[in-house]
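Hey,
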Amino acid sequence: MDNQISDDQLRKKLTPQQFAVLRQKDTEPQFSGPLLHNHDTGMYSCGACGTQLFSSEHKFDSGSGWPSFYQAAQDKKIVLQTDSSAGMARTEVLCASCGSHLGHLFDDAPQTPTGQRYCINSAALTFHKSAPKKV
């Protein structure tokens, strides 16, 4: 992780909910995130450091209540680690640049090309809309 940002810096930059998700590994309430129903074309970036993580091209409606992606934009932009909290074993998804918590990865999406579901908190992301393509 090469882009370490102090908690003090992030408290000034982020909303309390964003800070709780990104730094304290909290989860936003199901079906509450503003990016859940975003259908615009563009890139989803880490809300803490701005690293591009997920493309709208790989976003799908999983019905889980959180933005879901079937693959990351680039594998080296995320880190996966075992999360044994909440009484279960899950795979946590972290930003490789700054170590911020993004959400979890599940192998329960048979309707996707990868069979995977990156279940990511809206509060952990920022969205950058792509400019329309000129014809």
